[in-house]
Design a protein that fits this description.
single chain, alpha+beta, 4-stranded antiparallel beta sheet, 2 helices, 4 strands
């Protein structure tokens, strides 16, 4: 599915079109006057995001949903902070 394709003008039609295109784990939200749909593409192993005009059903934008990558970066930051805290604790022990 690419920009310019027609998926539908309601949630059920959008889900149906994405299922026909073999997407899985489909979620559709209506936000800021447009439909935002997400679906897992098992062929590319990527979470795709689509913006759909509710009046025409046309896909206006397609992108890879990188939300999971942002979560991983946050997890790495938390791990680094925990390691820093452990180092500070060890330093405190040596000073006493």
């Amino acid at each position: 599915i690419k920009a310019g394709d027609t998926l539908g003008t309601d949630e059920a039609a959008i889900i149906n079109a994405l299922e026909i295109a073999c997407y899985e784990q489909i979620e559709v939200e209506f936000e800021d006057g447009i439909f935002e749909a997400e679906g897992w593409d098992p062929v590319t192993s990527m979470e795709m995001e689509f913006e759909i005009d509710p009046e025409t059903g046309l896909v206006s934008a397609v992108s890879v949903d990188d939300e999971d990558e942002a979560d991983e970066d946050d997890d790495d930051a938390d791990t680094d902070k925990a390691e820093d805290d452990d180092m500070e604790d060890a330093d405190d022990t040596n000073e006493k």
